[in-house]
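Hello again, I could really use a second opinion on something today. I've been staring at a protein lately and its backbone has me curious. You're getting the sequence in one-letter code plus the fold written as tokens. I'd be grateful if you could look everything over and explain what you see. No rush at all, and the record is pasted right below:
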Amino acid sequence: MKKVYPIIGALLLSASTLAKDDVPWFESNTPLTQAHKHLLNGDLPAMFSSLVEVWQLDKNQSIAPHLNALFLQSLEVDCGKSLDTKPFPNWLNSVVVIRSDIQSPGRDAYRAIIEVEADKTIKDITLSKWVTRNLSTDSSLNTVALSDNVTKYVKRYNLNSRMQMGLYRIDVTAADQSSWSSWLVLGDPKAKVSVRWQSKDQWKVERNALLNPHCPLPKLEASLYDFIDGKYNRVWSQSYESDYPNELNQNVIEPGRYVLAVSMNHARWQGPIIVEQSQIISKTYDVSLDE
């Protein structure tokens, strides 16, 4: 824990300015001070529980950056694996939450996606922002059969703006009325690796900060989509965890006009939940007969 002390010290100093009547903040017993104490003591589940309570009770957005810094510091320990020790129920295999920022010529789009793998038939999946605010009325729920017993359910929300930091709630309801729910805290991290277009046919990977050694390596994915019968269909895809390329080998696909999407994905955990931040850039891409 020694390596986290300098940043925690700065957080403690800023927290002391939040105390009232000049009472030393360590002598108070608010959820915020408890979150700091638990982080100092290495009790990440208790720290996370206190942080959820702060987000539930606090109405002053001025401390949101402080809460974000505190949360991001907790991820330096083990990338969020210890924030929640409660396992999934036996019928729920995995939960992945993805925030996507999509940049295409002349338009930016935002999505929230929840992927659930389950042994039971799932009736509904919802993601809402505290307090009980629906993300969007533009949503869909699709299924993919992975095996005879396991199905992947994908709930997709099309958003008007980027998902903000703060407290969210995930609810999964099965057809037999079994249910599972969890609080989800989203921070506002700055992407440590990002991607942008460098020329007509090339992109550039930019490294903006040191990576958290406890988190998976950022994954770059390049995909080609064909537009058929009013829908985009992925016809090719390749992912990379290192030695990121900056262009596409055109020999992988037949000549024609496609949409090329390049994404940079950062992943962490919140206990058993996987949380991903995805930056996607896309543009029209021509593969000529001469190549």
